[in-house]
Specification:
By secondary structure, the protein is an alpha+beta fold. It has ten helices and twelve strands. The strands form two sheets. Strands 6, 7, 8, 9, 10, 11 and 12 form a seven-stranded mixed β-sheet that branches. Strands 2-1-5-4-3 form a five-stranded antiparallel β-sheet, with helices on both faces.
Amino acid sequence: MLWPEKGPSLSVQYLTSDLRAKAEHHRADTGEKTQKRRAKTIAKMAEDCALLEQQGLAVAILQRGEVRYVTEGHDAHDLMRRVEDHIGRTGSGDRWDEAGFFARYEPRPHDMAIFIVGHPARYPASDETGALTPKDLLKAALWTILALSIAVTILLGRWLLRMLSEQILAPLAALRSASAAIRKGDLNHALSVRAQDEVGMACADFERMRQDLKRAKAEEIRYENNRKELIAGISHDLRTPLTALKGYVSGLRDGIAQTPMKRQHYLDMMHESVETLEHLVGSLFLFSKLDLGKVPFHLERLHLAPYLEHFVAEQRAAFRADTELSLRAPAARDLALVDPMQFARVLRNLLDNSRKYRTGAKARVEILLEHHVGTIQLTWRDHGRGVKEEHLARLFASFYRTDEARSNVADGSGLGLAIAKAIITAMQGSIRAEQTPTGGLTTIITLPCAQPEAAEQKGTSA
């Protein structure tokens, strides 16, 4: 449909070539039934001539000077003359110009000659009214489709490039930047990628890894600071009784203690220093084993109310002169999973602190047991010297004492509350401290409730 408007059309060329081929076949036919076959060939040639006539052409076929076919209304000799005027008198050839289409086929020897003259029909550029032809419409449609295809391809390419940049290139650039920051030791460089595809998931995993590394680094720094404080505390608290021991031994060796009474005093002081050392080393050994998880815990289901009643009765008998204990424990049947021996160590440490830091002649301690949904809370409240607000957060750290000068080692090593926290944590509980409103220190222990065994449940329901 896009064939040029000038020059022979495909149908004219084809029909002309077909006529020549059939004329060659007609000339070469020398068989026994030559007349019949030649008659059939002439009939087929007439079909081609009819098609050429539909294109606006006139055809004449001569054989040995005799006219075998001529277009109706035309004279064969006139067609011959018109062809000779345009392409010469002899030989085969064709010509198409403004005057029309002229063709002649005249092989040697001269057995058959074909003459074609006329103006082949063409599609005009437009009809008389100026309307576009189907050919023009098709051209316009094809050019429109081509332009739209190019525009869609460009827009699709820009969209794909933007999507590639937003979903792959930008997250990868942010990932490279974050990894470079971590490589330099900067764990505060956050990676924020909103994509939800595989690249976004990888960046989210990387961000979680950064946060884990940051927490691990902070924990490492905290442990390192605790280790330094632990070494400093051990060094100080061991040096004080050792210095005292060295002084007393030097006094005995140099003869300063000349009387039996003075020598006995030196020996008593030396014994006290040795006991301080023994207590300090024992506490340090226990804390180290707790920190490493080397202390075995034998957890039992206990009703804390009777357990606390027994503990308070023992301590009242032992410290009746300087300690006043009171207990409020409702008769609830909630069970706690605790190690009785280690839990008693926690209570004794709390009692020792309350007695050491009392303000009057007696240490007043109130113990309150409360039952909540899923937990049991024990509140230990004394009315001693208390602790300032800024010291509460570090009260359970190892070797921490509110007396920064650590002038009196006999008052404590600073490991009692740290040991208490380690024991409570090992029993899946928590411990914290706060100020008593009327003055003093309040320690709150929270333990999870334990489920009773099947036999107990059956007995209760029965």
